[in-house]
Amino acid sequence: xxELCELYIYNKKQKFCKLSLIIPTYNEAxxxxxxxxxxxKSLKNVxxxxxxxxxxxxxxxxEIAEKLNIKYGNIKILKRNNKLxxxxxxxxxxxxxTGEILGVMDADLQHPPELLPKMLEKIENGFDIVVASRxxxxxxVEESNVLRKLMSLGxxxxxxxxxxxxxxxKDAVSGFFMFRREVIDGVNLNPIGYKILIEIxxxxxxxxxxxxxxxxxxxxxxxxxxxxxxxxxxxxxxLLLKLxxxx
Length: 247
Known about the structure:
Strand order of the largest sheet: 1-4-3-2-5-8-6-9
Order of helices and strands: EEHEHEHEHEEHEHEEH
Number of strands: 10
Structural class: alpha/beta
Radius of gyration: 17 Å
Number of helices: 7
CATH architecture: Alpha-Beta Complex
Number of domains: 1
Strand content: 15-25%
CATH superfamily: Spore Coat Polysaccharide Biosynthesis Protein SpsA, Chain A
CATH topology: Spore Coat Polysaccharide Biosynthesis Protein SpsA, Chain A
C-alpha cells in the first residue's frame, strides 16, 4: 500500500513468535510507555511481538515506541501517513505479524495488559477466539460518561439484531481480543471504521463452541482523548449494513 511507511526496528534473531499483539495508535504518547512496560511484564515468559500501527500521530507516539524497542527488541512500528482508522490498522498489523496467535488491544490503558496471559492460556487450551468482555458476570464498566455507555450497549444490540453470528459473544464490539491465525486464513477482511471483531466473527473460520469471553474491568480513560465521534458511529452502522448484505 502506497500510504504505508514501514520502520523495521525489530529483533531479527527471534524467528519464532507465539503471539503477535497488534495495537493501533493515534496520539497516545501519554499512554504508550506505561502500556508497553505493562505488556512486557505480563508476558515475560512468552515469545511475542508487539506491532504498533500508528496513524501519523502528532505527539511522537511512534518515536516513543522506537525507544522502547531499543530496550526490549520485540516491537515493530508501522507508520501510516494518514488517519486511516482502527479497523484497517489491525488488518495492516496482521499482514506484518508472524505469530501463530493474534491479539488486539487499544493503547489508551482501558484494556488491562495483565489479562493477556489468561487470554493466551484459553487459546492454548483449545479455544479459537477469546474476547475480553464488558458484559458478562464479573465484568465492570467504570466509564463515567453515561451517553458513551449507552452508545456502546446500543452498538452491541444492533450488531446482535442484524448479524446472527455476532451473538456468539455478549461483547461483539470489544476491542480487546485474541484468536488463532487460522480463523482468518484466506478471509478477506475489509473493515470500515473501528470495530474489526464484528467482521472476524461474521467472516472467520471457527467453531462457535470454541469461542469464549473473559470478564474484566473496563477503566475510564485517564490520559489523552477518545477517538469516538460522529464519523465513527456512521462507519459502524455502514459496516453492519455491509456485512448484512454480503452474508
